[in-house]
Amino acid sequence: MIRVKGLTKRYGHITVLDDVSFGVPDGEAVALWGPNGAGKTTIVRCILGFLGYEGEIEVNGVDARRRPKAVRQMVGHVPQELDFYDDLTIAETLELSRRLRAVPGSRVGEMLELVDLGAHRTKKVRELSGGMKQKLGIALALLADPPVLLLDEPTSSLDVASREHMIEVLEALETEGRSIILTTHDLDEVGMLVSRVLAMEDGKVIQECAPSELAERLGLRSWLHLIVGQDQQEAAVELLAAHGFRAHTNSAGILVEVSAQRKGKALHTLQESGFEIVDLEVWR
Amino acid sequence: MTRLVAASGALAFALSLAPSAAADQAPVDLQRLIDEAEPGEVITLDADTYEGGVVIDKVLTLRGEGWPVVDGRGNGHVIEITAPDVTVEGLVIRGSGDALDKEHAGVSGDAARIRVIGNRFEDVLFGIFLRRGDGSEIKDNVIGSKDLFIARRGDGIRLWESHSSTIENNVVDSGRDSVFWFCDDLIVRNNRVSNGRYGLHFMYTDGSLIEGNVTDGNSVGTFLMYSKGLTVTNNVFSENRGPSGYGLGLKDVDGAEATGNRFLGNRVGVFFDNSPSERDVVQHFESNVFAFNDIGALFQPSVEGNLFSENAFIDNGEQVATDGRGDLEGNEWSVDGRGNYWSDFAGYDADGNGLGDIPYEIEDVFSDLTDSYPDLMFFQGTPAARAVDMAGRAFPDLKPEPKLSDDAPLVEMPGFPAAPTAEAAASNWPVAVVSLALLGFAGGFIWLAGRRPGSGTDSKVLPA
Amino acid sequence: MTAATAPAGIDSSAVSERVEPRLVGVIALKVLREAVRDRWFWLYCAGFALLAAGITTLALPDTEVVGTGGFGRTAASLVALVQLVVTLMALTLGARSLAGERESGTLRFLLSHPVSRTEVLLGTYLGLGGALLAAVAAGFGVAGLVSSFRSAVVDVGILLKIAGASWLMALVMLGIGMLVSVVVRRTGAAMGAALLIWLGLVFLGDLGIMGTVAATNLPAETLFAVAVANPIEAFRLTAIVSLEGSLDALGPAGTYAVDSFGNSIGWLTLGVLFAWAVAPMVLAWLLFRRKKDL
Q1: Which candidate from B375, B386, B425 shows the least CB-CB separation from C63?
Q2: Phi/psi at A149 (nearest 5 deg)?
Q3: What chain C residue is nearest to A53 in terms of C-alpha separation?
Q4: CB contacts, 8 Å: A75 with chain C
Q5: Domain A219-281 -> CATH class
Q6: In this complex, do A49 and C109 lie within 8 Å of one another by their Cβ atoms?
Q7: B446 contacts in chain C (CB < 8 Å)
Q8: Fewer Cβ in 10 A, N or C end of chain A?
Q9: Phi, psi of B147 (to 5 degrees)
Q10: Does C116 sit within 8 Å of A145, measured CB to CB?
Q11: At a CB cut-off of 8 Å and minimum separation 6, what does B172 contact?
């Protein structure tokens, strides 16, 4: 259970989190979704006690400001920047973490197996690829089998195969009654892993909904690639611009920026004015 | 068991005492023995304890065998000698009074030709104090002190108006001073004086020979005052580090000749105060070693007339310095074209004649500063002081006038006989052991700390 | 709020927010291991040991001629070497410590575990202090070994006393360095600040007093008070006291100190060192604990 209430973070005059409130019950995974700079990672760091903040954060009823150690005891964290000790090997890194968390030594081997790093256990962190570091990060986060997981872009560095494996791992975790916060900018990942999405922009939560509703609720923009008659291209672009669309020609046709709910409107505008649309594609 | 043997006469006396020598008997009355002895007699004492506070007022020899103890029990002199030609030999002399104004001593004498030979002095205020003891001999004694604050102790040996006496092979430890005053033509040889205030202190002792002595660990090693024609050879002055801390001090001394001495690790190796005091007198310092002293040789600013040649100045904090602002113009640093060896000489000898081709000069900025501002001595040896000197070498404008110039510096250290204390120079195994332990500790510590942990921990279940 | 069911049975109420020695130890060992694997550590150690060996060799040229004296001068040179090298080593080790971890992001890794900032600070101090202990022991071990072949008057007790005082001073400098590391965020800037502090304490402070003495005839007691406040001077005076039993050799200011403090002068200088060992660390702790943002 994570409860965030009125969370605000300012650096001087710059407000990076503005009165954010949400909750994550046990057994639920919630995504913080948004572009870079929206404040997702800042929330994670506030929960971990890396940053001072205004507002309240509680993890399983424990105040994060007053009892940061107790909170961190309950939290597994996959950081966005995978900064581990370069000179330590994978096994040494896990061993250090194990000792700091007072976890039995057998867990190290289990985690290595889980993230498929057993063969690389004596490699130093500095020799690892981004994907391997991310696996190490996940292994570290799961080492103590914590009730709360903060996964900060946990799959961004993985290749396609590892990523699917990791998503399976993470999906399995959710069912064990944990509270999970996942930050991502990838909508597909959101769809697979979480039941609820908090969309963030400029330090605020701008939407809260199921993953499937997200695109529409946010008015996500995409591009329509329209093929019209060669000689009609210029006129079509002018018409669209006059109706408030951003549009331009490219080699094969016209690109029109549309919001999720207005794809048809662009087509309708053109067809009303007599343009023949030969073909169309939606580009994200 | 024979308690007492009278060597001549007094047989009856011996017979009367010998059978009653059981432990419950009253101790032998030494004063009665002395009183009843004939002049010229030799009284031999066996190993036992005799009551001190005795007065010897006739020619007599008091000789111990097996270290008999004469104990003054803290009252007055242990043995007082008022007649000439008395010999005290082979005794443990213990427990004088402690009144400095009464000069309580182990042996206090006021007569000529007193011989104090091979005794051990313990818990005495003064050890041996002779007045008007011309031609006396003080040899082979080991002299301790009372356990008092040093200014409240007495002198290990004190001679007054005792010309032509010989003080030889004595070991004096932890006394206040050993003082010789108004005693011409002394021979002071092969004594060792340690841990006192003034090791050897000479005042008005013209023509004396000071040879082969070791004064170490005193406040001041040896101080010569108001004397002419002294010869100082082959002595060791080491680690004398009191507030003044001179290995050898000279005040108003004229015509001293110092050769073959070693000045080691003193605050100041040798200190010249108005010596020579007379205009046309010169003194020679030749073939001495000045090493590891804070200051090798220190001069009051106006001192002149000292000639230095064939000496070695090795790694003294300051090789030569003046006490206050001034130069050393009136002293010579080479004699007949031969100067001294200086460990910090940075010159060269291209023509191979054993002499540096450029003069050795002392022109350190920092020591120049301390001459003007003695308070700055506080910083001697600090990195900051060294930086000042380096700045002086880098920027010649900062350099003061050379304080001293040796025009013929020796590039090789001249040969010296081995130091009298060299037998102690064998390797120092306690330090070696401790050093190896330190290294072992450091190595083991680093090895243990640097080991890679965590290999193979997955099979090992550690308690949480 | 009701306590959630924690899958692994983690009982958060069992976690103490107090300093746990076990965690401090884990961090100290990690820091120590890192320190002794660092090439700078080896460079400093090698430099210190070589210079110490060189000083000892050069300062004791020929026992045949000069007898067994000279340890005093050797020790004085060793003390100056410690003032230069060990201080710099300790200051830079301290200055790099937290700033470096902050810059490389590993501080966040460490603090994502159930450890407090106080534990991280203490563990780092102890780990680096241990590394410095090894460096000091190695340097004095080499110096002692060399001198043991050349002189009989080296006193084991004095050697150990000066080595101990050197370590204490290294801890002082480590604390100052770590304070810098807490205050200054970038490693480069922290190292620069450490270097400035080193210059100030080793050279500029003394030079400033010297200039003041020359210009204003500063009284001896003021000179002593100002000088002894400098931990590097307090270390030197501690070493001189253990070597000589007094400060008489240091001219009027030394005589003043002996007259005023007598036999307790060594305790005074040692006290200054201890104060310096504690104060910057306490300040660093307050700042590191209060400073919310890593």
Answers
A1: B425
A2: -125, 130
A3: C292
A4: 112
A5: alpha beta
A6: no
A7: 36, 134
A8: C
A9: -85, 75
A10: no
A11: B127, B143, B156, B157, B178, B191, B192, B193, B194, B196, B199
Helix (H, G, I), strand (E, B) or coil at A242: helix
Question: Could you tell me which of B176, B169, B167 has the C-alpha nearest to residue B144?
Answer: B176
Domain boundary among B113, B147, B178: B178
Phi, psi for A206 (deg, rounded to 5): -100, -20
Chain B CB contacts of A91 below 8 Å = 454-455, 457-458
Q: In angstroms, what separates the C-alpha of C43 from chain A's closest C-alpha?
A: 19
Q: Which of C108, C114, C292 sits opposite A83 (nearest CB)?
A: C108
Q: Does A235 touch chain B (CB under 8 A)?
A: no
- Domain enclosing residue B330, as ranges: 184-363+401-464
- Closest chain B residue to C210 measured between Cα atoms? B376
Q: What pLDDT score was predicted for residue B25? A: 54
pLDDT at A90 over 60: yes
Domain count, chain B: 2
Pair B208, B254 in one domain: yes
Report the greatest alpha carbon distance in chain A. 73
User: Do B384 and C70 count as a contact with CB atoms less than 8 A apart?
Assistant: no
* Tokens found for residue B48: 């036992």
Q: Which of A110-119, B342-351, C240-249 has the lowest mean pLDDT?
A: C240-249
B275-294 per-position pLDDT tens digit: 999 988 999 999 999 988 88
Who's near A241: CB < 8 A, 6+ residues apart?
Answer: A247
What is the amino acid identity at position B105? A
C66, C236, C248: which to substitute to probe chain B, counting the most B Cβ within 10 Å?
C66
Instruction: Judge whether B72 lies within some domain.
Output: yes
CA atoms within 13 Å, Cβ hemisphere of A97: 35
Residue C26 has what pLDDT?
94
Q: What is the pLDDT of residue C12?
A: 57
Mean pLDDT by runs of 10 across the 294 residues of chain C is 42 72 94 90 92 78 58 80 94 95 93 94 96 94 83 75 94 97 93 96 93 88 91 93 79 86 89 95 92 73
Query: Does B129 share its domain with B56?
Result: yes
pLDDT over threshold 80, residue B40: yes
Q: Where are the domains of chain C?
A: 18-186+194-288
Q: Quick one: B441 and B300 in the same domain? A: yes
Q: What is the pLDDT of residue A41?
A: 92
A44 at the C interface (CB within 8 A)? no
pLDDT digits (tens, 9 = 90+) for A7-31: 999 988 899 999 999 999 988 889 9
Do B318 and B376 touch, CB atoms closer than 8 A? no
Q: Which chain A residue lies closest to C21 (C-alpha atoms)?
A: A100
Question: Per-residue pLDDT for B125 more than 80?
Answer: yes
CATH number of A1-215: 3.40.50.300
User: Within an 8 Å CB–CB cutoff, is residue A67 touching chain C?
Assistant: yes
Give, as one character, the DSSP assignment of residue B415.
P
With a cut of 70, say whether residue B209 has pLDDT above it.
yes
Q: Which two tokens stand for residue B244?
A: 């003044």
A134-160: pLDDT as tens digits: 889 999 999 999 999 999 988 777 787
Q: Name the residue in chain A with its Cα closest to that of C15.
A: A70
Percentage above 90 pLDDT, chain B: 62
Domain residue ranges of chain A, discontinuous segments joined by +: 1-215, 219-281
- Partners of A178 on chain C (C-beta within 8 Å) are 7
Higher-confidence position of B270 and A195: B270
Give dist(CA B303, CA B338) in Å, integer: 22
For residue range B157-181, what is the model confidence (pLDDT) as tens digits? 999 999 999 999 999 998 899 999 9
Residues B230 and B155 in one domain: no
Strands (E), chain A: 2-11, 14-24, 29-33, 54-59, 62-63, 75-78, 148-152, 179-184, 196-201, 204-209, 221-228, 246-249, 254-259, 277-283
